[in-house]
Design a protein that fits this description.
The chain is an alpha+beta fold and 385 residues long.
């Protein structure tokens, strides 16, 4: 059953008509070794690399997992958000689909103990259709020491801030580590009674449910080593549309937070040389994802490119930002012809990403994974004290 589900999902992602495939038997049998070998030669270098035990793979889930209603045994799919490299090249490409199951959940408890979810992964489906058995796990549960310090820091931070005597009592009861963990709030000045009363309420407060949503990046640890073929870089390049005389290079790609703290902004540094017969406009520019959803330039970024024309003979270097719904999807920078709305040029952000500095990639990953506890924000009217 799981192989059927994998095939249907992969077919839908690649835009394959499954009804046609169902009517006609699949080709590629053992008798057609020539075609199979040709495909192998086009995709792989012929080298083998080991995906080591304890390797970390970045993924994003395809559906909401919520500890308040998701139950153990629920199945879901996730998608690999970064190419996984070995010493010899890419062994798991971005876009590989992972099959997962919710293995364990715990409810939120008193003393600020958060709910937890543990996810298990048993196989991958690569873009070329291979099914790879794996054993991988991800959990939202913190180490007991970290969890305890986190609870103390949260409670003291919002209940004793502004309470001098309350802060000193907390320092005496819970020690210097708690004062440090709460970033000095336990020693701040203010009303004593409010601080002491607040501390009592905080220590019996109930924790939160956890939520993992599409766009949240999770880190999955592999528990068993696997030998995998190494892909050719050319085989993994995304399709582009070029226009004669028009050169658009993406020199840098930064993942950033918007003014509201959400990691949903992609900022591109563009080098544009227009030696074509077309005049481009910033209003005819969009970032398009692999679901064909268009995103216009963000008003919170550099808006110079939005309000100018790029005429034949122009050369420029400029930044432009886009606020997207899921920063982990595949994207193309696309310019349209205003007269007929046809695509003039379409440049792959993923192709360009392979060439940006490793330092920038590490910064981007830090931005994308800044949410680590997956705490679910509760409605104030529903809070249970």
């Amino acid at each position: 059953m799981k192989k059927i589900l994998s095939f249907i999902l992969l077919a839908s992602l690649l835009g394959i008509n499954t009804s046609v495939l169902a009517a006609e038997p699949l080709k590629g049998s053992v008798t057609e070794t020539g075609e199979f070998q040709k495909m192998q030669d086009e995709l792989f270098t012929g080298k083998i690399e080991t995906l080591n035990k304890k390797e970390i793979i970045n993924m994003t889930v395809s559906q909401v997992l919520d500890s308040s209603f998701s139950i153990e045994g629920d199945e879901f799919f996730a998608e690999v958000t970064d190419d996984v490299y070995g010493d010899k090249g890419i062994i798991i490409p971005k876009g590989t689909v992972a099959h997962g199951k919710l293995c364990n959940t715990t409810a939120p408890g008193r003393f600020g103990k958060e709910a937890t979810m543990e996810l298990g992964f048993d196989y991958l489906v690569t873009p070329d259709g291979r099914e790879i058995p794996i054993e991988g796990k991800m959990t939202t549960k913190l180490h007991p020491v970290t969890q305890g310090a986190k609870i103390v820091a949260q409670d003291l931070g919002y209940t004793v801030a502004g309470g001098a005597v309350g802060g000193l009592m907390a320092l005496n009861w819970l020690g210097l580590e708690a004062a440090i963990a709460s970033q000095g709030y336990t020693i701040a000045g203010g009303a004593a009674l409010g601080g002491v009363a607040g501390l009592g309420v905080a220590l019996i407060r109930k924790g939160n449910h956890v939520l993992i949503a599409p766009g949240d990046e999770i880190k999955v640890r592999i528990n068993t080593p696997i030998d995998l073929p190494v892909y050719k870089e050319e085989a993994l390049k995304q399709e582009e549309i070029l226009y004669d005389g028009l050169k658009i290079s993406i020199n840098d790609i930064k993942h950033e937070k918007d003014p509201f703290g959400e990691a949903n902004t992609i900022t591109l540094t563009l080098l544009i040389s227009n030696m074509s017969d077309k005049t481009l406009s910033g209003f005819d520019m969009a970032l398009v994802n692999d679901y064909n959803v268009k995103f216009s330039p963000s008003i919170f970024g550099n808006t110079k490119l939005m309000f100018r024309q790029i005429k034949p003979g122009d050369k420029l270097v400029e930044n432009v930002s886009f606020a997207v719904d899921n920063i982990n999807r595949k994207f193309w920078l696309t310019f349209y012809d205003r007269k007929n709305n046809q695509i003039i040029t379409k440049v792959s952000v993923d192709n360009a990403y392979k060439s940006i500095p490793e330092k920038t990639k590490r910064k981007n990953e830090k931005v994308r994974t800044s949410r680590k506890d997956f705490r679910k924000d509760e409605d104030f009217m529903d809070m249970d004290f």
